[in-house]
């Protein structure tokens, strides 16, 4: 490889290096490899910009490698409450009904129509928010030598803004993912609404003496039957959630709330790895185009860590029977197949979102663009929620 000429393979390596530096995957300092030494020399021979020391002066066609990114879990985002640091939620607990007084009158007595029967009200409160802030510096003229025209420089700046927006989208996605992971961890810590699918399957099919394991269910002979059973179980749970009861929810002592979650208000997130197997190995020969559940289902690539997609390891915020929030014990749980919950059980909120430019610095010939927003994330364990474990 030549050190003093711009061969195609050298440009390819330079572009890889620029990309890794610009995305923060590597530091700006060169590494001790022959290939990079060659790239550095070639870059210096062509000239680099004085701002980033990463952009080669224009030699040919430039491609701006950026595309818009849309966050996942967008369904968790709730309406913004612009003012006030405290959000409250009021629910009504059932009280016993009284004896009728219309069909069994007693001589010499009267019926009091003014007896007071106060509502048993539960008020839940959400406090605080986290602040997200990101800034990018826009240089007015310093990068012109690295581009062919003002229009191309404008494309570069536009790419910067798209990248800034993509970071914002992914931070929101991670916020939503963390909110979901906390809900899963809190439900498991409270042992409330936790369904052990494989254990139930073995019990219902009489295989407790020789139970199927988490490995056995993937065998071709076992998959269709198990996942047909699982589909029915998910729909049964969804139907029970639609009943007005105290099931699948944490109760506050003295304020027991009877809730119901219609199918239209149910959210279901299932592990995409398992859904892919169901779609390919089971649905194609059994369900055809029938949905897995009555409510909408969304696949999740991973709950917390992309390298261990079916697991979480969190120390969740939990609520006790007195309605007091505290830090729970750590939950390190694998084999999480999915979570079903009422749309009001968890959510995130963005308020005071603002993108603004600083005044132009005429000495440095640049300005800063800053994105700022307040983020809120909530869990309500008094709403219905079910954790599905493949164990």
Helix share bin: 25-40%
* Shape, principal axes of CA atoms: flat
Q: H/E order of the elements?
A: HHEEEHEHHEHEEEEEEEEE
Mean pLDDT across every amino acid position: 77
Largest sheet, in brief, is:
5 strands, mixed
* Percentage of residues in DSSP E strands: 15-25%
Please count the helical segments.
6
Structural class: alpha+beta
Rg over CA atoms: 29 Å
Distance between the termini: 56 Å
**Widest sheet: strand order?**
4-14-11-5-6
Task: Count every beta strand, where a strand is a DSSP E run of 2 or more residues.
Answer: 14
Unreliable spans: 1-24, 27-45, 57-62, 284-288
Give a brief rundown of this model.
With 391 residues, the chain is α+β, with helices and mostly antiparallel strands.
Helices and strands in order:
Blueprint: H1 8-22, H2 34-46, E1 86-93, E2 120-127, E3 130-139, H3 150-190, E4 194-196, H4 197-204, H5 223-241, E5 266-271, H6 272-283, E6 297-300, E7 312-314, E8 317-319, E9 325-327, E10 331-333, E11 336-342, E12 346-357, E13 366-379, E14 385-389
Parallel strand pairs: 4-14, 5-6
Antiparallel strand pairs: 1-2, 3-13, 5-11, 7-10, 8-9, 11-14, 12-13
Helix pairs in contact: 1-2, 5-6
Would you give an account of this structure?
The protein has 391 residues and is α+β, with helices and mostly antiparallel strands. It has a domain at 156-389. Helix content is 28%, strand content 23%. It contains six helices and 14 strands. It has helices at 8-22, 34-46, 150-190, 197-204, 223-241, 272-283, and strands at 86-93, 120-127, 130-139, 194-196, 266-271, 297-300, 312-314, 317-319, 325-327, 331-333, 336-342, 346-357, 366-379, 385-389. A five-stranded mixed β-sheet has the order 4-14-11-5-6, sandwiched between helices. The chain has a three-stranded antiparallel β-sheet with strand order 3-13-12, covered by helices on one side. Strand 12 (346-357) and strand 13 form a beta hairpin. Helix 1 (8-22) crosses helix 2 and helix 5 (223-241) crosses helix 6. It is flat and about 100 Å long. The two termini are 56 Å apart.
């Amino acid at each position: 490889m030549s050190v003093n000429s711009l061969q195609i393979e050298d440009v390819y390596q330079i572009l890889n290096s620029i990309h890794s530096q610009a995305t923060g995957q590597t530091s700006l300092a060169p590494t001790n490899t022959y290939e990079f030494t060659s790239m550095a020399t070639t870059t210096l021979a062509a000239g680099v910009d004085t701002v980033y020391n990463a952009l080669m002066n224009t030699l040919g066609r430039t491609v701006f490698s950026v595309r818009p990114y849309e966050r996942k879990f967008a369904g968790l985002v709730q309406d913004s409450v612009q003012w006030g640091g405290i959000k409250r939620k009021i629910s009504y607990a059932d009280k016993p009904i009284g004896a009728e007084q219309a069909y069994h009158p007693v001589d010499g007595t009267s019926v009091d129509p003014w007896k007071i029967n106060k509502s048993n009200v539960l008020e839940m409160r959400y406090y605080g928010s986290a602040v997200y802030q990101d800034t990018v510096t826009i240089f007015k003229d310093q990068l012109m030598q690295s581009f062919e025209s003002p229009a191309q420089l404008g494309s570069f700046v536009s790419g910067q803004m798209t990248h800034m927006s993509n970071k914002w989208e992914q931070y929101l996605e991670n916020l939503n993912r963390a909110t979901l992971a906390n809900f899963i961890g809190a439900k498991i810590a409270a042992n409330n609404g936790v369904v052990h699918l494989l254990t139930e399957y073995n019990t219902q099919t009489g295989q407790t003496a020789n139970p199927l394991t988490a490995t056995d269910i993937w065998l071709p002979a076992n998959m269709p039957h198990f996942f047909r059973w699982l589909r029915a179980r998910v729909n049964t749970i969804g139907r029970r959630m639609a009943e007005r009861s105290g099931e699948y929810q944490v109760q506050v002592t003295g304020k027991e709330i009877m809730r119901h979650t219609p199918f239209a208000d149910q959210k279901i997130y299932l592990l995409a790895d398992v859904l892919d197997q169901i779609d390919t190995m089971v649905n194609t020969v059994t369900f055809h185009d029938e949905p897995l559940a009555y409510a909408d289902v969304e696949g999740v690539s991973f709950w917390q860590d992309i390298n261990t997609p079916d697991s979480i390891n969190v120390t969740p915020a939990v609520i006790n029977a007195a309605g007091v929030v505290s830090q729970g014990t750590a939950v390190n749980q694998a084999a999480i197949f999915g979570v079903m919950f009422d749309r009001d059980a968890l959510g995130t909120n963005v308020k005071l979102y603002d993108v603004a430019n600083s005044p132009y610095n005429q000495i440095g010939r640049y300005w800063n663009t800053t994105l700022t927003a307040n983020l809120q994330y909530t869990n309500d364990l008094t709403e219905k929620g079910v954790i599905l474990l493949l164990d």
